[in-house]
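Ticket #4471: complex job returned nothing on first submit. Input attached below:
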Amino acid sequence: MSDAVTLTQRSAISRRLEAECITPDAFATLDEAAIARLPLWDGPQTVPLGDVFQVRGGASARVRVAGDLGMVDALGAGMTAGALHIEGSVGRYAGTRMAGGELRVTGDAAYGAGLEMSGGLLDITGNAGDRLGAGRLAAARGMTGGEIIVRGNAGAEIGATMRRGTVVVAGSAGPRAGIGMIAGNVIVFGSAGEDPGRFNKRGTIVVCGSVTVSPTYRYDCTYRPPHIAVTVVHLKTRRTLAIDDDLSGARFRRYSGDMAELGRGEILARSEP
Amino acid sequence: MRIRGVAIDDTFAEAFGMRAARVIITARDARWATEAARSMTGFATSVIACKVEAGIERALSPSETPDGRPGVSVLLFTMDSDGLAKRLIERIGQTVLTCVTTACFDGLPDAADRMPVGRSLRVFGDGFQRSKVIGGERYWRIPVMEGEFLVQETFGRVKGVGGGNFLILGESDAAALDAAEAAVDAMRGMAGVVLPFPGGIVRSGSKVGGKRYAAMVATTNDAFAPTVRSLTASSLPNGVNAALEIVLDGIDEPSIAAAMRAGIDAACRAGVHRISAGNYGGKLGPYHFHLRRIMDASATA
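Support reply: We reran it on our side without changes. The output follows.
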């Protein structure tokens, strides 16, 4: 048993690999040799993890992975506990279906990070790709719990069909944020791309930068939503997110929608810069 | 034992178990947080008739509150678990929900025993309420004419201690009150303790039951009432013409003991003859705060 398991990339990865086996859950009960034998999927074939990464340590739920992992998909998929810290960028589906624990990515995350996650924390220092915290295409539900923090920007359709949980983007988000949201929170500190909240049932979309609200939403009032102040304190103190101090007392324009759906969702658009 | 010439009786304050909750009220500024807190803690001096004992614990700076606004911490105590939940729902619903700019949070987040306070109050929203989970805690957003009232879904409930007390026996009413005020000033703001009576001071200390009126739950503590000294078995020594009581409720024994120590020390001043305490021979409550043991640290010959 060691304090942590460390994986160090041996050489540049040119083919896309699926690494669902790289989770604190799996490593917690395996020694160094067993971890090195775990399979990474290269198309229809597998390669031993030890061929791609140098493995140090074993039997620990604290995992550190270093390297340029942009071609490695599904890191931390389905993890339920422990801490997975990736020093670098990751490929698609990082933290997909994760139910607990902490997955931290110091670089960027590609398409589908946190897809259908149900719990835990996914913290991405760089940018995130499309369908962050969403569901698979045509899936009934996206994210159903947990918290995603993106300290950079995010792509299109973040939080699509999400049912619960919170997606926070410190920068700006691409088009169609929160499309088909059932409930939950999408918070964008920058600007939101076109058409946010389409087919939103009960979800909350908060945008602090510029946003164009769909005509299928109706303006209610301009006010200070008290839960935003609690969210700001939470993100500053527990997530160490740098947030404008004025945000706690800021006023937001509240729009109810999408009236094409239940109309119980909302877009809160910051009124004062 | 004497402290600055004031005798400390060899007796103890007898306290009993209660159920306690801590409520954090925040508002746009300290004025409105305090208004709500005062309203919430009104008519909450004794469970004998008020069903709840409550008081302001201390003011909170913005850095201490869940929403980064000025706040006030309130402690409430009841004799039973169910009663505490009812009193919170009543009092938050009538005095905090109604007060402009306020929000209401649980101040005992580590308590495993939870009361569904916000979950009950949410129905005031008549179906327009919304819940939000932030940092693992669920809150209810209830629409009101000013905007929204935010209240936490559940509040913690812990075993507390009620009825900590000490008596200040003065040579005059003025001397006793000056000492009591000094004691209150020393105790106010101490963590985990509230003084539920007006200004923190009680002039109408009571005994259990009555000698003449059998139906009475409590009647005047004639043993410490100077005007009937010659008519009853008085506990007042010669030279004492007024007695005042300080009553404390706390979330645990150490909090009460610390506050009693500070209060008694402050009350030991000119014009005070003795410090005593109320008890029922150890038959009523399991918590005994022995004055001399509490004051050992600050005693002087």
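Chain A touches chain B at residues 164-166, 185, 202, 204, 221, 223-227, 229-234, 238, 248, 266 (CB under 8 Å). Closing as resolved unless it happens again.
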